[in-house]
């Protein structure tokens, strides 16, 4: 970063910090007194590394009450911190920073960081070092202000208090694995590399994987068969900010928003690396072909074992399953929509040979380019659903405007023991 840009950012930080001190002065005094009376001290101090790896004491108000971070405005005035930037690291954490991300130490660390923002809404799929590197390379007053605004909104949407993360969640009797994106991709890859033996008559281990969002769980609430399929699936993964809000109602944390749309490119990258192939089944004619073309251009070496649109006749089904079975695919992705795709997979699980079969809803439409994905800034604040509502209001208004509140009401009832859990 050149000197003039650095000076502009420093002025920006000073103006916001001084404004915060003036506007929040009454709260400051109350919070300081609360800390002193509750703990016998005003501040907690943590030794961290800042710009050029220089150490400083990062201030927080003492005690667990609201407003701990406001004490860091003193660090901003002193020049230790910026309003927006990479998270300040301890010396032990800094050792693990790869050389490619050393650029993060060329700027002041921030009160708001890109990694912490994405953590709040469960989409921090990339490493903290990678997110830091991208932010520093593009840092300006505009990007810093954008990060601040998004962080404040995400803090309200995603909640700020850390909650216990259990290995499994339960919504309306549906067990959901509470895991990370990396672990989910690893789980699929391990099974997918157990290539199906096309000649063997022995029973092979096969896994049905499903993703659920609030709309899926609303369907499962009244659809006994669909709920039963989810209960018997090898894994059910959480999709969407609504699941995170539902977790918070129950006093639990969500490890990550492990939705199929964000998992798919990571699965393609892993498939290209590990050598297993994918079979794409579903969506309108021509869509799966475009998905294959786009992803193979993005991940050279990716093998697509077969393609089939979802508008086939019942009498074509046996031939399609035979093609799937002889393709040698490690993963079968089925885009029929919920709950049809899960019911179809359950009906044919005994026949289908791919080690992993998964329902992916409208995923193919996004990666074919037919429907554009919400921009990252909307996903970071947990409002991707508003993008989908604007795109297809006639089809989506019931799901979001009626379905989301209904889901949260049912979670509230479940949390109070009024429905089965």
Describe the structure.
The chain has 421 residues and is of the alpha/beta class. The chain folds into 2 domains: 3-158, no CATH class; 168-415, no CATH class. The chain is built from 19 helices and 12 strands. The relative contact order is 0.10.
Describe, in short, the structure shown.
This protein has 421 residues and is an alpha/beta fold.
Q: Unreliable stretches, pLDDT < 50, 5 or more residues?
A: none
Q: Radius of gyration in whole Å, from Cα? A: 24 Å
Helix content: 40-55%
| DSSP strand count | 12
Query: Overall 3D geometry?
Result: globular
Helix-strand makeup class:
alpha/beta
Q: Span between N and C termini?
A: 54 Å
Beta content comes to 5-15%
Task: Please summarize the sheet with the most strands.
Answer: 6 strands, parallel
User: Helical segment tally?
Assistant: 19
Strand ordering within the main sheet: 8-7-12-11-9-10
Mean pLDDT: 92
The tally of domains stands at 2
Describe the protein's topology:
Blueprint: H1 3-23, H2 25-39, E1 43-49, E2 55-61, H3 73-78, E3 82-84, H4 91-94, E4 110-112, H5 114-120, H6 128-138, H7 141-158, E5 168-171, E6 174-177, H8 181-192, E7 207-212, H9 214-222, H10 224-232, E8 235-238, H11 241-249, H12 260-274, E9 278-282, H13 287-298, E10 304-308, H14 317-326, E11 331-335, H15 340-348, E12 356-359, H16 363-368, H17 376-380, H18 384-391, H19 393-415
Parallel strand pairs: 3-4, 7-8, 7-12, 9-10, 9-11, 11-12
Antiparallel strand pairs: 1-2, 5-6
Helix pairs in contact: 5-7, 8-12, 9-10, 9-19, 11-19, 18-19
């Amino acid at each position: 970063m050149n000197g003039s840009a650095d000076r502009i950012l420093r002025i920006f930080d000073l103006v916001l910090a001084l404004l915060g001190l003036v506007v929040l002065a009454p709260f400051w005094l109350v919070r300081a007194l609360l800390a002193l009376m509750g703990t016998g001290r005003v501040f907690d101090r943590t030794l961290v590394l800042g710009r050029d790896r220089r150490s400083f004491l990062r201030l927080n108000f003492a005690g667990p009450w609201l407003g701990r971070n406001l004490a860091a405005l003193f660090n901003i005035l002193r020049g230790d911190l910026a309003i927006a930037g990479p998270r300040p690291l301890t010396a032990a954490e800094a050792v693990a920073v790869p050389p490619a991300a050393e650029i993060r130490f060329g700027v002041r660390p921030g009160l708001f960081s890109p990694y912490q923002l994405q953590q709040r809404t469960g989409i921090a799929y990339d490493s903290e070092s990678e997110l830091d590197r991208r932010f520093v390379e593009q840092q300006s007053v505009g990007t810093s202000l954008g990060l601040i605004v998004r962080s404040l909104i995400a803090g309200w949407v995603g909640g700020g208090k850390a909650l216990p993360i259990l290995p499994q969640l339960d919504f309306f009797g549906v067990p959901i694995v509470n895991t990370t994106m990396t672990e989910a991709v690893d789980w699929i890859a391990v099974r997918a590399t157990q290539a199906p033996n096309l000649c063997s008559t022995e029973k092979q281990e096969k896994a049905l994987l499903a993703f659920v969002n609030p709309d899926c769980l609303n369907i499962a609430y009244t659809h006994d068969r669909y709920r039963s399929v989810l209960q018997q699936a090898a894994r059910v993964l959480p999709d969407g900010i609504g699941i995170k809000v539902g977790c918070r109602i129950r006093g639990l944390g969500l490890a990550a928003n492990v939705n199929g749309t964000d998992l798919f490119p990571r699965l393609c990258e892993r498939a290209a690396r590990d050598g297993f192939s994918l079979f794409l089944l579903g969506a309108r004619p021509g869509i799966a072909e475009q998905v294959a073309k786009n992803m193979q251009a993005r991940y050279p070496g990716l093998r697509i074992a077969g393609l089939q649109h979802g508008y086939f006749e019942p009498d074509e089904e046996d031939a399609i399953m035979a093609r799937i079975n002889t393709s040698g695919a490690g993963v079968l992705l089925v885009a029929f929509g919920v709950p049809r795709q899960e019911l179809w997979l359950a009906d044919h699980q005994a026949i289908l040979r791919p080690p992993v079969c998964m329902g992916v809803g409208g995923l193919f439409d996004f990666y074919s380019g037919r429907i554009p994905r919400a921009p990252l800034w909307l996903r970071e604040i947990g409002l991707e659903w508003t993008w989908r509502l604007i795109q297809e209001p006639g089809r989506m208004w019931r799901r979001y405007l009626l379905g989301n509140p209904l889901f949260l009401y049912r979670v509230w009832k479940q949390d109070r023991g009024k429905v089965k859990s």
